[in-house]
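Extended Data, panel c. Modelled sequence:
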Amino acid sequence: MPPRPRRSTASTTAPKRERSTSSSLSDAPPPKPKASTKAKTKTNGTDKKVKPKTALADDAKAGDDDPTVIEDEPPKKKTKTAKAKVWPPPELSPENHPPRNGYPIFELPSTSASPNGALPPHTTEKRPMLLGAHTSIAGGPAGALLRAGKAGANGLALFTKSQRKWASNPYEPEAIERFRDLMKPKEQGGLGYPPESILVHGSYLINLGNPDETKWNTSYECFKDDVYRCHQLGIKLYNWHPGSTVGACTKEESFASIAKAINRVHKEVPEVVTVIENMANAGSNIVGTAFSELASIIALVEDKSRVRVCLDTCHLFASGYDLRTEETYAETMKKFDEEVGNGYLGGMHLNDSKADLAGNKDLHENIGLGKIGLTGFRCIMRDPLMSGIPLVLETPAPEKALETGDFAIWMREIKLLYEIQGIEDEEWSNKKDEIEQRWRKERDSINPPKEKGPPKSKTAPKGKKKSKKDDSEEDED
């Protein structure tokens, strides 16, 4: 009588796995090889056979039953080596940069006004005004310097990280080294963008005027990270929007919250100068719309050598400060000196305004094509007070112009501003209209104005409550 086949011990649950007898940690001698037998399989009530489940269906393959069998290892994936990117990118290579604008250098008139808050220059060489644009850091912060060079600019602004995220990855040492190398003078192999020509713009998320402790702490950490990144890169000027009361406290309490952040960051990060930007929306919860509000914040700062103001022309105009004529420009700058002090002026953002004077709307327009007009910007370019500080364009451009490297608008505006700087007073009234018409045609060919559609119904869709955001025509930078 033939021997009865052994019943399979497999079950539908995974058996406890014993230590492999082929392991060197086993004290038991290896068993003799057994003749392989096919285990009976269970059925599920049909003719189909169900394979027994095991914790390792492959214990036999792994050598637990047969020490002479070696487990087949899965094929190893080939490690992909990232190709090193060419530096500098060919499209931004300094070899392809145009000559810098602003030459021959305009002789600024002498003035008896008190000096501005410009940082000490890193060169004794006479330079044009530090005029430039806000450039992208795509590919690393050093890319912003290359893009400024490609635009023929003498100054620039940049973000040190994403402006709409609370946190970003830290810089690689190589990124810091590249940036610092490009800041050096041309004779040392750099592009000649020293610290006094660069104005960093802070994250849009920061609100140091909010009295909520948790939200203030979150904003402060982002603020401090921005300032620390400036220090890493060797940049000295950090500009940001002071914030808002959010309707939860008085303006005076907000001033104290903002000053607390400035005083704290001055102790935690060395050298960097904090530059407060004036804001639009006078009469709202926004802080810093009036010169008196900027002065109130500065009064609470302990180390006043490390605080400055950046004046945004569109924000000034929206808040009721007129810049349109030589007389109104002079009056506005006189008020600034009286209420804040010229010594605190550390930079400017140059933007025309789509909205009217005192319209409380932050709607940027290209230089000379808005409600301020070319005369106001000519006044800025011929004012000795603006010498040695970054003058940064934040004007409209084609969609994703920064990402695609399309600098045509800003290159043209930089040339335009240096052009009108050199036109003498007696010629200006005759040339102004002609220059404006010519520039408008050029602007329209580069960035055609968007066609206005039919007026939107003021009635909110049924079931949807109309928000304040829907009513606002704000365009925050």
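Residues 226 and 363 are 26 Å apart (CA to CA). This feature is highlighted in the accompanying rendering.
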